Known about the structure:
The structure holds two protein chains of two kinds. Chain A is α+β, with helices and mostly antiparallel strands. Chain A has helices at 52-62, 72-81, 118-131, 143-158, 164-176, 190-195, 198-210, 224-238, 240-245, 293-304, 310-318, 347-363, 368-384, 389-401, 408-417, 420-427; strands spanning 3-6, 16-21, 24-30, 36-46, 87-94, 97-107, 214-220, 265-271, 276-283, 322-330, 335-342, 431-440, 449-451. Chain A has a seven-stranded mixed sheet with strand order 1-2-3-7-4-6-5, with helices on both faces. Chain A has a five-stranded mixed sheet with strand order 8-12-9-11-10, with helices on both faces. Chain A starts with a strand and ends with a strand. Chain B is α+β, with helices and mostly antiparallel strands. Chain B has 17 helices and 16 strands. In chain B, helix 3 crosses helix 8, helix 11 packs across helix 17 (429-438) and helix 14 runs antiparallel to helix 16. The chains are: A alpha+beta, B alpha+beta. At the A-B interface, helix 2, helix 4, helix 11, strand 10 and helix 13 of A face helix 2, strand 8, helix 4, helix 5 and strand 12 of B.
Amino acid sequence: MAECREVQSDGALEPVVLTVLPGVTLMACSTDRFKVGLLSMTMPLPIRREDAPAASLLMSVLRRGTERYPSMELINRRLDELYATPCNIRNGSTGSAQCLGFSAELLGQRFLLDDTPLTEEVLSLIMQMLCHPLKDADGLLNARYVEAEKKNISDAVRALINRPSAYALSRFYDIFNEQYEHGHLLCGSVAQIEAVTREQMAAVHERMLCRAPIRFFYIGNEDPQVLAALLARTLERELPARFATGAAVAQEDFRLPVLKAQPLRRVDEEMPVGQSHLILGYRTEIRLGDPEFYAMMLCNEILGSSPVSRLFTQVREERSLCYSCSSDYVIDRGDVIISCGIDKDSRDEAEQAILEQVEVMRTGAFTDAELEAARQLLLATYAQLTDSTKAIGGFYTTRQLLGVSQTIEDCRAAFAAVTREQVIAAARRMTPDTVYFLRGMGAAQGEEEYEEE
Amino acid sequence: MKKNDTTSRILPSSGILPEMIEYHSHTLGETYYRFIHRSGMPILVFPKKITACTAMMVVRYGAQDVSYTTAQGERLITHDTPDGVAHFLEHKLFGEEDGGTVDELFSALGVDVNAWTDYDKTAYFISATEQREEAIFHLLRFVTHPYFTAESVEREQGIIGQEIRMVEDNPWQTLHRRTMGALYSVHPVRRSICGTEASIARITEGVLYDCYYAFYRPENMYLVVCGDITAETVAEIADRALEDWEYRLACHPDKGSRVYTHDQFPPEQSLVQGTANVSRPIFQIAWKDPAYCDISNEYERLRRELTMGILSEILFSRAGLLYNRLFECGLLSPSYSYGYSTMPDVAYHSISGESDDPDAVWQEYWRFIDEQKRRGIDAEDFERCRRVLYAGYVSEFDFTDDIADLLVESEGNDCAVFPVISMIGDITLEQVQELLMQSFDREYTVCSVLRPIERKEK
Lengths: 453, 458
C-alpha cells in the first residue's frame, strides 16, 4: 500500500511525493486545472557509452509490438481508442542518467464520452510494452523488429545532415564531450547501432526492469493516493520477481561531477550547404543545485537567451551578421553553448563580436536595465511553467533525478535576489573549451526536373 | 459529443463595452466574447484563470498579397510588389523611432513578444504574466505605429538574407516549396514567404509604407486576447492605445484589397524531382482540392475541413493501413507527417516522409487509394477517428497560446470557434465516404522528391 512520505501545499502546483513500493516513487500534482493530464514513467540507468545504443534500440523495439498488440498498428489503434492518448517512449539524458520510460497525455475523465477508466487502461498498455514485448521462440526480442529499428535509427542518424544546424551541434558535442560518457547522441553512431546484439538488449531490459529506480510523475485530477495504489498493484502483478526478492535498486543520484575546461580546441569542418555554423562551448563548473546557479541563469539570459540579449542585439541587430545567435545554459552539466548561423566569410567577425559580449559580462559592462530585463523575463518564464503539464513535469523530474529539492517559487525568489556582482562572478567562471565551425560550401540543391506520368 | 454544445447570445452595450456576442461551450465549460471596437477592429476576449496572458494582433495580409489593388474613383489600380514584403514588414515593425526595438520595452515588463508571417495573414503576439494590461497596450501601439528608414531597411536585408539561407538549407522546406510550385502554377503560395535575396534587395521604406497603410487598417485586422482578463479591460486598453489611429490613417486613404488567384487547374506535372543535401530521398505527395475553394459559406468550409480531418485520420494516420503497410516493409521511416491545409483560395492534402524508394511509395499510395475507394470506409475506423478529432480539439483548450491560435484561425475564416464539437458529432459515415469518392484523384495529385546528391568517389 502506498505510504505518504512528503506532502507539500497544492496552491502553486507543488507535487507530493509518495513511495509506491521500494525503489518506486510517485510525484503527483493533483489539480483539475488542465483538460489533459500527464503520466510519465522514468527508469534511469547510468549512461554508459557501450550500452546507450542498446538501450535506445530497446526502447524503440518495445514500442513496435507486444504479446497482446503484436504490431505498431495495433498499439496505435488501441491508443486512438483511448482518446488518442499520445504515448511516447522516453530516451533522454539528465546528469549521468539515461532516462528510459514512457509518457502519456491523458484526456480528463470529465471529457470522456464513455466510462473508460483511461488512466488504468493506458497504464496497462504501457506495461504491455515494458514487460510483455513481442519475443521470438528463443526468448529474445523479435528479430525482425530489432533489425527494422536498427535501420530506422541508423537512418535517423544519417538524416542529421538534413538539418545542418542540428548536425553541427551534434558534431560539436562529440568533440566537446569526447572524454565523457555523457553528452553524445544516446543511440550512438551507425556502426555502434548495427553492432548491438539482441542479447545485449536483453541484458539492458533486465537491468531496467530489475534494478532501475522507477519514478512516476503525474499531473491531473486523480487522487494521488488512489493512483499510487493502482501503480503498486500493477507493478506487483507485472514485476513479481523484483518486488518479491526486494533486490537493491541501482544508483539513485545522477548528479554529474564538475566538468572542467580543457585547453582550447578548434575544429573546422565543411558541408555543401549555404549557411555556416559557429559554435562556442564553455565550462562554468556551476550546475543546478550549486549556490551560483541562479546568477549563472541570469548571466546566460543577459548574454544570449532573449531578443534583448547581447548576442541578439549586438551580433544580429547591430552588425546584421546572422538571423539567429543565442546561448544555452545546460544546467545539469554546467556548460554554456553559444551558436549562430552565418555567412562563411563572417566567421572571424562573428567570433570577435561574440567574444566581446562575453567580455562585457565578465567586466560587468552590461547595464542595470539589461540586468532587470533579464530578471523580469526569467521570472515570467518560470511563472509560466505552471501553465504546462509537461513543463511542470520536466522541472520536477529533472530535480528529483539530480537530488535537488527546489520548487518553481523557490527559483523565482532566488532570481529576484541575485545581485549584479553575483552575475559578474558567474560570468567569470565561463572558461572556453571548444570552438567548432561548420563551413557552408554553397547550397547543394540541384536543378529541378519535371516528368509527366 | 453534444449535438447542441454551443450557445451564443448578444449582450447589449454597457459602459465602455459595445454590443457583443457571448459564446459558450457546455462540454469545455469555456466562454468567450466578440465585439467590434469603435475603431472598426473586431476584438475577441477569452477569459481564463491561468498565469500567462496571450494577445495576438492579426492583419489579413501575408506573403500571398504580392499584388493588391486600391481604388481611384471607380478605377482599380493594381500594385505589384517584390516577394517577401509582408515578412519584411513583420520584422521592421519591431523597430522604434529612437533607433531601439520594441523588444527592449517588452523585456523590461518581463513579456515575450514575437510575430509570424503566413501566406494569408501576419500575427504579432505577446505572452505576459504580470503587467498584462500594459503589454497589450504596447502591442496595439507598436503594430499601429510604423517607423522605417533607408538605413534600417538595409540592415534588415542582411538579417533576412541569412534567414533565407537558413530556410534554403532546410530540405523539407525546399521539398514543400517544390510541391507547391507543381500544384499551383500561378498562385503566390508557390513562392517563399521570406522572398529571395534578389527580391528583398528591391524592398525600400517606400514600399513598406505603401503596403503597411494599404492593409494595416482596423477593418482588416483583429485582436485576440486569452488570459486572466475581462472584455471590459481589453476594450478600455484598446480605447487608449488606438485613440489616434483613425486620425493617422486619414492621411493614407488608399485601402488595399486582396487579389484572389483562381488557380484550381490540374497540375501540369505529376512528378517533380531534384537533389539536395539529404541522407536519403524525401518525398511529399499532395492532392489539390479545388472543390474547397468553390464553397462560399464559411461554416460549410469548416465542415469540409473537419470531414477531411476524419478521412485523413482514417487513411493516413499512424494507426492507419497505408502508413503501417509502408512502415512494416521498410519503405517509410518514422519521420512522417500528413494533413489538410487551407487558405482562402488554396486547399490541399499532403503526406511527407523519407523513403529509400519513393517510386514504390507512390505506387503503393495509389494501390491503397483505389482499394479504399472500392472497399469503402469501415464504421469502426470512422468512430475511432472521429474520437481522435474530438480529443485533439478538447486538448487545444489548456494553454492560452493554443486557444489564441484557434481564435486567430477561426476569426480568419469568419467562423466561431466552439461549433466544432457539435459539427464533429454531426458528421456521418456516409459524408466521409462521399468525400473519399470525390477526393485523391490522380489528375490533381503531384509527387515531389528530393534525392541525395551523388558524391564522386575519391
